[in-house]
Amino acid sequence: MMISLLSLLGMLVGAHGVNNLCDSIRARSSVPMATSSSFRWLGRRSRAALRVHRRLSRVRAEDQGKPDFLRGSFVFDPDASAAVKEKAEERVKEAMDYKQVVENATEAELFNRLALVLKDSRGIGIADEDKKLYLRIEKAAQDLEMQYGYKYESDQLIGGWRLLFTTSEQYRNMGGMTGLAKTPGSKLHSLFQILRSEDVPSMKFNEALRSLPTVEEAQALSQEEPEGTSATVEILEVFGGAKIKNEMRGIFLLDKIDEQGRKFTGVDQIVTEADSGGQEGIPAPARALQICTYISSDDQFRISRSPAGTLFVFQRIDDVEDIFNKMGLPKRGGSTWSSFFG
Fold first, then answer.
1. CA-to-CA distance for 326 and 142, rounded, in angstroms?
2. Most confident option among 79-88, 94-103, 225-234
3. 260: exposed, middle or buried (C-beta count within 10 Å: 0-12, 13-18, 19+)?
4. Is the Cβ–Cβ distance between 274 and 249 less than 8 Å?
5. At a CB cut-off of 8 Å and minimum separation 6, what does 293 contact?
């Protein structure tokens, strides 16, 4: 079936087209195929060439007066080609004009574009209706990163941060951090990242190294100095307003990078345990790296990326433990069944 289909296409587009087509199909298909040279003889047959010529003449005659998008795909239209070129030139000019605007914009002007997208968000980026905002927020974030990114000190990362928006597919699929937000009667209220600069006992550091999936990873970090402890917190709203706190915690290291004159820092979190679903101290080995690409000049907002480019936008919270306390939640650690029903 594959060979007969290629034979038909060879009669339509000639030898050169078949060679390119074979290469293209072979790159996309796991089915073994003959080499393109096996089909070169198709384009050399004079009768086939004559049939192609007659067909193209017939299609051109039938296509007269049709809109461009209805015309035969094998018909070359000089007028349409000129229109496409003109449109491409217009887009290049628009892009150059936009680049000039961005280069001359103040940080406040570029941040306002980001803020307008955040204002339209329904669920920090993980709600279904938020997917239509991804292109807008990516563009706004990239403009900030390009013009005002990589201008911060690593100690500015320390503190509490509330997640405002993310393009994380994992968070979207799970409805949050743990997946418990998708249980009946529950919904996500907020997500936080807390980085505390404090001494990490060697026993705790060794525990973090043992939680890594491979010996090689543990050996690579064994000589590093942990920066402090970390926690990722998920607040759920249940039963018409009551709050539950889930927390994943461990340690973190700061990877300081200087690349082509740009200085930036990666936050390498190694999670060892979690309080989740009312249970305490559940083993939860995990590792997450976020690279900070921008911190606002007022030190209140931050943009970070995963190694795959996933976007995270945070707002600084000066006293995050006080916020938890006002919600009736533990300052440190997650909610337990006894604290929730006690």
1. 36
2. 225-234
3. exposed
4. yes
5. 145, 149, 150, 264, 303, 304, 305
For residue 187, give both structure tokens: 């919904």
For 16-59, give the secondary structure using H, E and C.
HHHHHHHHHHHHHCCCCCCCHHHHHHHHHCHHHHHHHHHHHHHH
User: What's residue 173's pLDDT?
Assistant: 93
- Report the 3 state secondary structure along the chain: CHHHHHHHHHHHHHHHHHHHHHHHHHHHCCCCCCCHHHHHHHHHCHHHHHHHHHHHHHHHHHHCCCCHHHCCCCCCCHHHHHHHHHHHHHHHHHHHHHHHHHHHCCHHHHHHHHHHHHHHCCCCCCCHHHHHHHHHHHHHHHHHHHHHCCCCCHHHHCEEEEEEEECCHHHHHHCCCCCHHHCCCEEEEEEEEEEECCCCCHHHHHHHHHCCCCHHHHHHHCCCCCCEEEEEEEEEEECCCEEEEEEEEEEEEEEEEEECCEEEEEEEEEEEEEEECEEEEEEEEEEEEEEEEEECCCCCEEEEECCCCCEEEEEEECCHHHHHHHCCCCCCCCCEHHHHHC
> Which amino acid does the sequence have at 211?
S
- pLDDT for 112-133, tens place per residue? 999 999 999 988 999 999 999 9
The first and second tokens of residue 165, run together, are: 């928006």
The dihedral through the CA atoms of 108, 113, 119, 122 has a sign that is negative
Through-space distance between the first and last CA atoms of the chain, rounded to whole angstroms: 70
Place of tokens 């069944």: 337
Distance in angstroms (rounded) separating the CA atoms of residues 48 and 54: 10
Could you tell me if 232 and 192 are in contact, meaning their C-beta atoms sit under 8 angstroms apart?
Answer: yes
The type of residue at 218 is A
Q: What is the mean pLDDT of residues 167-177?
A: 94
Helix 134-148 × helix 78-104 angle, to 10°: 50
